[in-house]
């Protein structure tokens, strides 16, 4: 009774909570969280499971991914208990900065645990169909496994911590959707695109030049590998170029996501070079 570690036997419960919340995650996405941090996710239960929190740590940074309490368990401070468990775990692993991409409704809950609003992102749900001209750029080439150390170094400078395992797993999942712009032997930008159960996810998407033409070349090249379907991506609201490029696809829905941190902020470098994040639950 009470709090315990979320295991593989809980994946169906975790997925059902995301469906109840309208997020519709898949078993594979929950499994990825457990692969990145096997002991970092939690279930609160009494006679039955009533809520969950998922976490992953990258060096001195923790990410609180999903925080969901079932309708049966609401109004009983279960969300607060799950946040406490997540913070205790991540700080116990040495994290002195914890990031969460919050729902608007949960901002006050996180503030009561010491989180501060740092940035705003826009989650974009778009449609890809035959009206969109799939035009890969000759400036872009396939990202190779040998490029990952440089990609990881760029990501670390922009994010603020070492996410090497995440980058490696995203590449392993869909190497055919990963592209780069390289000049004079250096990577100026990269993008990861990968299929999921409803369509495609786009990100991380980084352009060190900040040039709209480079950023759009990466975007169109990745999208050119996709069939018709839905696309999900997230970008900082301050990066107007990213929002402009993403708006080339017909929107289905968009919503604002507060990015909050407890401790040092993440993405403390120039976010004008970050055009798309990896995934909200992954940081």
Write up this protein.
The protein has helices spanning 11-21, 27-36, 78-92, 107-111, 148-159, 164-173, 212-223, 240-246; strands at residues 2-5, 42-45, 49-58, 61-69, 97-101, 116-128, 140-142, 178-183, 186-195, 199-207, 229-236, 251-263, 274-276. The two termini are 30 Å apart. 43% of the residues are buried. It contains 8 helices and 13 strands. α7 runs parallel beside α8. The longest helix has 15 residues, at 78-92. The protein has 2 domains: 2-95, Gcn5-related N-acetyltransferase (GNAT) (Aminopeptidase); 123-276, Aminopeptidase (3-Layer(aba) Sandwich), CATH 3.40.630.90. Strands 1, 2, 3, 4, 5, 6, 7, 8, 9, 10, 11, 12 and 13 form a 13-stranded mixed beta sheet that branches. The protein is 29% helix and 34% strand. The model has no long low-confidence stretch (mean pLDDT 94). β2 (42-45) and β3 (49-58) form a beta hairpin. With 283 residues, it is α+β, with helices and mostly antiparallel strands. The radius of gyration is 19 Å and the shape is globular.
Features:
Aminopeptidase; 29% helix; alpha+beta; 283 residues; 13-stranded mixed sheet
Give a topology summary.
Layout: E1 2-5, H1 11-21, H2 27-36, E2 42-45, E3 49-58, E4 61-69, H3 78-92, E5 97-101, H4 107-111, E6 116-128, E7 140-142, H5 148-159, H6 164-173, E8 178-183, E9 186-195, E10 199-207, H7 212-223, E11 229-236, H8 240-246, E12 251-263, E13 274-276
Helix pairs in contact: 7-8
